[in-house]
Amino acid sequence: MKVLIIEDEKAAFENLESMLKVYDPEIEISGWVTSIKDAINWFEKNNMPDLLFLDIYLSDGLSFELFKQIDLKVPIIFTTAYHQYAIQAFEANSVDYLLKPFKQGRLNQSLDKFKAFHATIDDHILHKLKQLIGNNTVETTNYKERFLVKSRNKLFAIDTNDVAYFHRDELVFLTTFDKNKFIVEYSLDELERILQPRQFFRANRKLIVNIKAIRSTDVYSKSKLLVKLNPEFYGDIIVSQEKSSQFKRWLDFD
């Protein structure tokens, strides 16, 4: 737990610091500030602490001035020798109002109160998160991971990651990075739906390519692209002007 102490008396600060360590040695004192001006500077440069101990009378005025200049979204335990400010304190983010001089037992009560309050907030947030997760189930798509192919009366399972490209001649073929070629019983339209789109791209009517098979891409004419693959594909691979922007985004060229 990170604690900021705003207190203009050194003896009072040291006493509070010592008592906090008695309550919990793991408490971290994020800072000690003695004035409104220094407090504003501190909050401008640092993240909000988990808990703020705030004296009311500071060296340059009443600490309530802070609320006029800073949006203090932090639980506060006020520490003061004056009881007349209790109502104002509880209108702020007050967890408790400690009248000086206070003893260890009274401080412990305040810290226990803060912990109980904090636990209630955490439980509420956890409940809301569970509701959100329950109401917003993430839909996942199962893309095809392998293809069963046939060669000389033998069946082989080809991992999709090993496929360099699919192309259509009279039939549809897949070509592996090892330059093996097999017939697949899918149309290119079907393949486009079942392949991982971040990995495979429909370059044109006859070809779907694996991003790892792209050897080079050159501007061809009128924003068309000329693509070369590895392993090499017969004939020119032209990506149309209409698809070139999408293709470059896929490659993250833009």
UniProtKB/TrEMBL annotation:
From the Swiss-Prot or TrEMBL record, give the protein name: DNA-binding response regulator
- The entry's keywords: DNA-binding, Phosphoprotein
**Boundaries of every Response regulatory domain copy:** 2-115
> Single GO molecular-function term?
phosphorelay response regulator activity
Alphabetical list of Gene3D superfamilies matching this protein: 3.40.50.2300, LytTr DNA-binding domain
| Residues found modified as 4-aspartylphosphate | D55
InterPro entries found in the cross-reference section = CheY-like_superfamily, LytR-like, LytTR_DNA-bd_dom, Sig_transdc_resp-reg_receiver
| Superkingdom of the organism of origin | Bacteria
Read off the Pfam families from this record. Answer: LytTR, Response_reg
Q: Which SMART domains match?
A: LytTR (SM00850), REC (SM00448)
